[in-house]
Every structure is written in structure tokens, then in C-alpha cells.
Amino acid sequence: MGSGSEYVLKHLNSYDVAIPRGVDIPEGISLVDESLRVASQDIYTVGLDLIVLTEKEILEFGRNIKKSVESAQNKVICRIKDRFS
To answer: For residues 46 and 63, what is the distance between their CA atoms, to the nearest angstrom?
Structure first.
């Protein structure tokens, strides 16, 4: 937990369900995504480093997310620059 944890904890406490409880992976990913969006109110909170733990493996998705975000950002910047060319 980092500097945005106060926002995340407030967000998680607003849920009607007890955490931790058994959640499936898609529900857990959505919960993490929502929580990090809420945490972004903190100026020092950036990016999403997603790691999924299963009984059989540990899967790291942070690099893929970062590359996709950078690619999308570059495309938008290029379109903005093209507008003024």
C-alpha cells in the first residue's frame, strides 16, 4: 500500500461484501482496477502493475499494460500534432 492507500481503503469499505472473500479472477481484476483509479486522486499514484496469483502460477501483466498505455498515448499525441501540421 502506498500513498494512495487511504483512497483505496475508503473505496473498498464502501462495498457491501466482506473482503477478503472468495472472488473470481475477473471480479478481482475489476476491483483492483477500480481501486487504482480511485487511488489516482493521490498525485504520487501512477500506473497499474497487475499481478494475478492462481493456485498454479503467478502472472505479471504490468509491462503489457504500460506498453499499451504508452502506445495509446503516443497515437493521441501524434493525432494532436497532425491537427496543427
So the answer is: 14
**For residue 27, what are the domain limits?**
1-46
Give every residue of the chain whose pLDDT is below 70, as ranges.
1, 16-21
Q: For the chain, how many structural domains are there in total?
A: 1
36 in Cβ contact with 2 (< 8 Å) = no
pLDDT of residue 79: 97
pLDDT attached to residue 61:
92
Q: Are 66 and 23 in contact, with CB atoms under 8 Å apart?
A: no
78 part of a folded domain: no
Q: Within a domain: residue 56? A: no
